[in-house]
């Protein structure tokens, strides 16, 4: 049996895996999606990503590539078909990479801390910090989009994918704790962008529905029944 | 040809600041080195990097670029003088970026942990982790260098810069902790590479001298104990 030349190891609830799926779909690349449970790591995963032992891993012609944003850049480098994912201007590229790193290292981790927070005081502080980050991201959106609908301009690009793939979990958190993060009064540009991004097929085909993520959220918090399937 | 109105905001001890300076040297691009006063942040720094307020920042024309490895990629994309810093093959590029991320997120914090470790056992454990990391990087070197002198091949590249900027800190940690981290028996290729990297034309004038860096480290330690 022929092995697909492009394989993606991961699972759908992971926003990091979603990034790679969206990038592959943008370039119309056929790939085999191999389910990997990050909480029950297979031998195969440990073999292709021995250093970090994490999903996603892209395997192209037998060669593994790890780390979601590195994979997205790889896809943009290795395939010419479809629209470019990174901006063409070097300064715009530097900005996109800067904000993607900020989102991954500083902003989204606040959501994980929020999910684990045990006191009302801690929750309040984290929510405040998330909102502060959103104000920065609103400024970034205005700068990067230059009046167009997406960070990437007319079409979605690297930073749309980087931030957009977290929107499933942002919405699940909104439902779970009753706070609206993407507020059209506080951060109008971002709120509109999020609506547009989440209504794209690129997003809907890949990111699990909010209700499914809410169930997983509850499971992580130790409340409610574990999600099935 | 790109405008050469280039400034680097930084400080001589910082390994992160070394990275864009090496990259600019490779490209033979002149720049103004604006040194921040240790312990205070200039208005220019706060204005150019309001999110992190950290060095290095590169200012090209009027535009700031932040985060050392992002700056190195920017330099490689803007100037085609000298040689390419990132590998040309997409897979090699992805591998270089992967290891650079590992170095920044896991390995260098491990190195810093040695000087913070309290007690002999903790120090030994911290050192063992760093050595284990170097063994991984030895393997990465063999794969990336393909028999040549550097991670980047014949000439220094992205991953050489990403790791090499920490060599002076590594030496200082070895001397101050009286431990051997970069061992020619455990990681012979990296050992040889370290010597070659440090004496490269693009590197030698920006790598801090060990004695000077050690004095600086002692001042830092004294300050943190006093506070």
Description:
Chain A: It is found in: Cytoplasm, Cytosol. Chain A: Its EC number is 2.5.1.18. The complex is a heterodimer of chains A (229) and B (227). Chain A is an alpha+beta fold and 229 residues long. Chain A has 2 domains: 6-78, 3-Layer(aba) Sandwich (Glutaredoxin), CATH 3.40.30; 90-220, Up-down Bundle (Glutathione S-transferase Yfyf (Class Pi), Chain A, domain 2). Helices cover 55% and strands 7% of the residues of chain A. In chain A, strands 2-1-3-4 form a 4-stranded mixed β-sheet, with helices on one face. Chain B starts with 5 loop residues before the first strand and ends with a helix. In chain B, helix 4 (90-116) packs parallel to helix 6 (158-164). By secondary structure, chain B is α+β, with helices and mostly antiparallel strands. In chain B, 56% of the residues lie in helices and 7% in strands. Chain B has a 4-stranded mixed β-sheet, covered by helices on one side. Chain B is built from 9 helices and 4 strands, in the order E-H-E-H-E-E-H-H-H-H-H-H-H. In chain B, strand 1 (6-10), helix 1 (15-26) and strand 2 form a beta-alpha-beta unit. Classes of the chains: A alpha+beta (229), B alpha+beta (227). The interface between A and B is medium-sized, with 22 and 22 residues.
Q: Please compute the radius of gyration of chain B using only Cα atoms.
A: 18 Å
Report the biggest beta sheet of chain B as strand number plus sense, adding barrel if it closes.
4 strands, mixed
Summarize the helix and strand pattern of chain B as letters. EHEHEEHHHHHHH
Shape of chain B: globular
Strand order of the largest sheet of chain A: 2-1-3-4
The averaged pLDDT of chain A comes out at 94
Oligomer: heterodimer
Strand residue percentage of chain B: 5-15%
Total of domains of chain A:
2
CATH architecture of the largest domain in chain A: Up-down Bundle
Which ranges of chain B are low-confidence, i.e. pLDDT below 50, for 5 or more consecutive residues?
Answer: none
Classification by helices and strands of chain A: alpha+beta
Task: State the distance separating the first and last CA atoms of chain A.
Answer: 27 Å
CATH topology of the largest domain in chain A: Glutathione S-transferase Yfyf (Class Pi), Chain A, domain 2
């Amino acid at each position: 049996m022929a092995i697909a030349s492009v394989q993606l190891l991961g699972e759908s609830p992971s926003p990091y895996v979603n990034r790679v799926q969206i990038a592959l779909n943008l370039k119309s690349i056929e790939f085999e999606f191999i389910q990997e449970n990050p909480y029950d790591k297979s031998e195969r995963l440990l073999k292709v990503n021995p250093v970090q032992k994490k999903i996603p891993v892209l395997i192209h012609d037998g060669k593994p590539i790890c780390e979601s944003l590195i994979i997205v850049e790889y896809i943009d480098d290795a395939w010419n078909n479809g629209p470019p994912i990174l901006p063409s201007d070097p300064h715009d590229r530097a900005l996109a990479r800067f904000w993607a790193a900020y989102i991954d290292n500083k902003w989204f981790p606040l959501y994980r801390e929020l999910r684990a927070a045990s006191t009302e005081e801690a929750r309040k502080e984290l929510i405040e910090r998330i909102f502060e980050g959103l104000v920065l991201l609103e400024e970034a959106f205005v700068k990067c989009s230059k009046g167009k609908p997406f960070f990437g301009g007319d079409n979605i690009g690297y930073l749309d994918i980087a931030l957009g793939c977290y929107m499933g979990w942002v919405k699940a958190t909104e439902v779970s704790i009753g706070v609206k993060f993407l507020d059209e009064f506080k951060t109008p540009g971002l709120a509109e962008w999020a609506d547009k991004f989440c209504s794209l097929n690129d997003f809907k085909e890949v990111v699990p529905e909010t209700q499914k993520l809410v169930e997983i959220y509850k499971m992580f918090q130790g409340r409610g029944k574990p999600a099935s399937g | 040809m790109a405008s050469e109105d280039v400034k680097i905001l930084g400080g001589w001890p910082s390994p992160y600041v070394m990275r864009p300076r090496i990259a600019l040297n490779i490209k033979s691009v002149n720049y103004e080195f604006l040194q921040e006063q240790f312990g205070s942040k200039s208005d220019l720094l706060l204005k150019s990097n309001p999110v992190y307020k950290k060095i290095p920042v590169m200012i090209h024309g009027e535009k700031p670029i932040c985060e050392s490895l992002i700056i190195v990629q920017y330099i490689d994309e803007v100037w085609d003088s000298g040689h390419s810093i990132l590998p040309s093959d997409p897979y090699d590029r992805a591998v270089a970026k992967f290891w650079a991320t590992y170095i920044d997120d896991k390995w260098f914090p491990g190195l810093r942990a040695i000087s913070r470790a309290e007690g002999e056992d903790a120090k030994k454990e911290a050192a063992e982790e760093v050595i284990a990391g170097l063994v991984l990087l030895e393997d990465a070197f063999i794969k990336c260098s393909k028999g040549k002198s550097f991670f980047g091949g014949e000439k220094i590249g992205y991953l050489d810069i990403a790791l090499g900027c920490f060599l002076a800190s590594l030496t200082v940690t070895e001397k101050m902790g009286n431990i051997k981290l970069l061992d020619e028996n455990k990681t012979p290729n990296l050992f040889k590479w370290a010597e070659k990297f440090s004496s490269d034309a693009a590197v030698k004038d920006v790598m801090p001298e060990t004695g000077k860096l050690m004095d600086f480290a002692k001042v830092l330690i004294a300050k943190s104990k006093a506070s």
